């Protein structure tokens, strides 16, 4: 991505999440700040009339982006119930959890590229949204530092429980970088959990998935944010296990649909070429 502008993929995700709030009822994921953090021109157009965005922002993709946030925050809620007091949002983009966090005991660390973070904070100021308490914003360039160094400098307490959300990032990183990041996170020992998404290996994608993947890969290449990695579920399980995680599971699109869109509950069908993974360095209590 260019150093002088926010990530285009972050903008894309924010647009879909904002449209989800206005077009999909009931929503998979409720986010009253989704429109606030989008590009102001898009926000005005969406609020004036969301219908033109219904076909343009594909409903299956909207559903996946909403579901991955819902899944991560559902897992976070369980961790908080069990005593977790630190939430790290890696590659936070235009995420809004820090604005919705009602738990004063939970400290939030947002970590992202300086340009994306600066634009997000500027939009919040322009919208008159106050900076949330118990949130630290740390600008980092992941290409020049190890993740462990970044988290240490951001003020994350390695001796206390940590929950990490890492959404919409892994597919833009080489396999070895993904491996190193998981090793860094896993090195925190028995105190860490993570949710992340990854691109399903091309050989395991259906014809329909490949068609969508090829389209988005071409667009990502044109925007200078190319896809760099893809995995099988077994490879993800092995990567997490080698990084020290003892509880690992992956979530397919079928499983996400059963969880969030069962029996046409909201008229949505989660589609795409990504899957979710959850890993913990210990097995949480039920």
TrEMBL record:
SUPFAM superfamilies to which the protein is assigned, alphabetical: S-adenosyl-L-methionine-dependent methyltransferases (SSF53335)
Signal sequence annotation: none
Sorted UniProt keywords: Methyltransferase, S-adenosyl-L-methionine, Transferase
EC number, UniProt record: 2.1.1.-
Family matches, as Pfam families: LCM
Major enzyme class: transferase
Superkingdom classification of source: Bacteria
A GO MF label: methyltransferase activity
GO biological process: methylation
NCBIfam families, A to Z: mthyl_TIGR00027
Annotated function: Exhibits S-adenosyl-L-methionine-dependent methyltransferase activity.
UniProt family annotation: Belongs to the UPF0677 family.
UniProt-recorded name of the protein: S-adenosyl-L-methionine-dependent methyltransferase
The species this protein was found in: Trinickia soli
